[in-house]
């Protein structure tokens, strides 16, 4: 990953994310992240990194904790198998144990965290077989939403998607994992909104998070970034032509390319 520039890690008390976490949306594509003290590893260069207290505003504090933990998992700060220590998390996020436990229970119910008698609560690891199934499910869902987008989107929405795709390709060129994930979120949000299928967006979000460690290692590879740019270009061009069959094939090809790159990081 020598194509990705790394930045020096600041101390854990740095309040770099205070404002971002205070207004962060409750979705797993959020570009904001937290990191457990002494256990963080950078999968790519990041715009910001640190811990800061979470302050309750309009959204429930539990949602903010969930967003922060999901982001940490997605960006690779919390790795598969890593044990979560409640006392450390409460201190670093400035939240009560009650609020933290509510958030942890929800993440556990989604399969993102798992509990064992000898290790306690930890980030769930995904097997090679589970990862394959997740990518196969994604290919089906993403082909569906592309088809629905073509059927329902206006010309203006298609033009907006073209602009969103240019932003996504530019994000790939930066090689910054946080930027890529943030812009990909907006890109797929636009497709799902135009397809009028928020359920699919939620399903994709959950599936993506389950393979976040593999995905992070894949996305920072220069070869995969170039492949992704070409795949997105083809996908958007077929959508612009409103060619359903070609667009479905392009969507499936994009997910298959992601799967091939990500699954290469683990032993089958």
Protein topology:
Layout: H1 18-22, H2 61-74, H3 86-93, H4 97-109, E1 113-116, E2 120-123, H5 128-152, H6 155-174, H7 177-195, H8 198-210, H9 212-219, H10 222-240, H11 244-263
Antiparallel strand pairs: 1-2
Helix pairs in contact: 2-4, 5-7, 5-8, 5-11, 6-7, 6-10, 9-11, 10-11
Quick overview:
The chain is an all-alpha fold and 268 residues long.
Word description of this protein:
By secondary structure, the protein is mostly helical. It folds into two domains: 18-123, Winged helix-like DNA-binding domain superfamily/Winged helix DNA-binding domain (Arc Repressor Mutant, subunit A); 128-263, Four Helix Bundle (Hemerythrin (Met), subunit A). The chain has eleven helices and two strands. A two-stranded antiparallel ribbon has the order 1-2. Helix 5 crosses helix 7 (177-195), helix 5 packs antiparallel against helix 8 (198-210) and helix 6 (155-174) runs antiparallel to helix 10. It is globular and about 55 Å long. It starts with 17 loop residues before the first helix and ends in a 5-residue tail after the last helix. Mean pLDDT is 82; it is low at 1-47.
**Cα separation of the termini:** 22 Å
* Multimer state: single chain
Task: Based on the coordinates given, report the CATH architecture of the largest domain.
Answer: Up-down Bundle
Main pleated-sheet profile: 2 strands, antiparallel
What's the CATH class label of the largest domain?
A: Mainly Alpha
Q: CATH superfamily assignment of the largest domain?
A: GntR ligand-binding domain-like
Task: List the total number of helices.
Answer: 11
Number of strands: 2
- Output the strand order for the largest sheet: 1-2
Rounded mean pLDDT is 82
Compressed to H and E, one letter per element, the order equals HHHHEEHHHHHHH
Tell me the strand percentage band.
under 5%
Tertiary shape: globular
The helicity comes to: 55-70%
Low-confidence stretches: 1-47
């Amino acid at each position: 990953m020598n194509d990705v520039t790394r930045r020096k890690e600041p101390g854990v008390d740095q309040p770099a994310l205070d404002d971002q976490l205070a207004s962060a949306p409750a979705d797993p594509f959020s570009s904001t992240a937290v990191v457990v003290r002494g256990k963080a590893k950078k999968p790519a260069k990041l715009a910001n990194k640190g811990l800061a207290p979470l302050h309750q505003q309009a959204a429930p504090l539990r949602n903010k904790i969930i967003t922060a933990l999901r982001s940490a998992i997605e960006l690779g700060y919390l790795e598969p198998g890593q044990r979560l220590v409640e006392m450390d998390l409460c201190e670093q996020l400035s939240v009560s144990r009650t609020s933290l436990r509510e958030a942890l229970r929800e993440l556990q119910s989604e399969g993102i965290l798992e509990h064992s008698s000898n290790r306690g609560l930890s980030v769930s690891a995904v097997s090679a077989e589970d990862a394959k199934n997740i990518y196969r499910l994604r290919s089906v869902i993403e082909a569906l939403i592309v088809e629905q987008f073509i059927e329902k989107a206006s010309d203006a929405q298609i033009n907006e998607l073209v602009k969103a795709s240019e932003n996504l390709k530019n994000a790939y060129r930066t090689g910054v994992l946080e930027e890529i994930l943030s812009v990909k979120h907006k890109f797929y949000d636009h497709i799902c909104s135009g397809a009028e299928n928020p359920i699919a967006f939620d399903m994709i979000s959950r599936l993506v998070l389950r393979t976040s460690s593999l995905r992070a290692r894949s996305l920072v590879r220069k070869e995969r970034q170039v492949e992704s740019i070409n795949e997105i270009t083809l996908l958007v061009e077929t959508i612009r032509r409103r060619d359903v069959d070609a667009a479905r094939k392009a969507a499936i090809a994009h997910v298959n390319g992601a799967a091939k790159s990500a699954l290469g990081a683990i032993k089958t």
